[in-house]
Amino acid sequence: MPDPRKQIPALPEATTLADEDFLIKRDTASGTDEKLGTPLVLQRAEEYDNSASGLSATTKSGAIDELNGDIAQNIAVFDEAGVTEWTVPGVLRLGLRKCHVEVIGGGAGGGSSLSDPGSGPGGGGGGLAYKIVDLTDVSSVPVTVGAAGNGASAGQSDSTNGGSSSFGSYVSASGGSAPGAVSSGNSGVGQGGDLNTGLGPGISGSQATSGEPGSGGGPGGGAIAGQQPGASARGPGGGGGGGSRDSQPGGNGFRGQVTVRW
After folding, report:
1. Mean pLDDT for the chain?
2. Considering only Cβ atoms within 10 Å of each terminal Cβ, which end of the chain, N or C, has fewer?
3. Phi, psi of 35 (to 5 degrees)
4. From the CA atom positions of the chain, what is the Rg in Å?
5. Which residues neighbour 114 within 8 Å (Cβ) at sequence distance 6 or greater?
6. In a 3-state reduction of DSSP, which class is residue 7?
7. H or E stretch at 91
8. Tens digits of residue pLDDT in 149-200
9. How far is CA 55 from the centre of its chain?
10. How confident is the model at residue 33 (pLDDT cuts 50, 70, 90)?
11. Contacts (Cβ under 8 Å, ≥6 apart) of 67
């Protein structure tokens, strides 16, 4: 596809924009137009053809969107566990911009002490990945947000892992791991990103001693002194805190999150 920035020279002075001053994607087969985005940079009216796809784009009254700016002007946040089919905006489908994607896996639940005295370990934080994604000619992307892990029942080792999050097949992040009887849960990891990391593991607990419970990884539940249940995580991907002495239940983890900027 030709680069419109090379074919549409900028005007030397700004001009007041009318309603029609938008980038237009024209389907030559049906004769229908689609208006794309809000114009931020004035350009000279010009038309270019994409013979490979049978589409053409026309700028009316000489205005198109900022095509190569580094600052994202739009954001989509997916913060409910489950799968959402995201319709790709026209400016991304045409290849005029790329999107910046952040993926966070769900945090694991915190543990409970299996002995008295004792303290439960913290759940692992979710994985974290960043990636710049080219969505040219892509109509939709399935976005998965990982569920939060559940904290352990009192005196049990039954906390659960956090769920994995992903942006299609482009980039993903695994959920944090549930802790053992004393050992903390491991952090999830990012996969397929330009940067892959994790929010961190939980903190270990103890058995047969009255030590403090372990806190969860990432923005996780903190250690609470005394005879208290584990604190639940506080932000996306956080692990649940461990229950304090006398076999208190563990705190819940926090679901993941996917953020798209373009």
Report:
1. 77
2. N
3. -85, 130
4. 25
5. 155, 156, 157, 181, 207, 247
6. helix
7. helix 90-93
8. 999 999 898 999 999 999 999 999 999 999 998 899 999 999 999 999 999 9
9. 32
10. low
11. 4, 5, 41, 96, 97
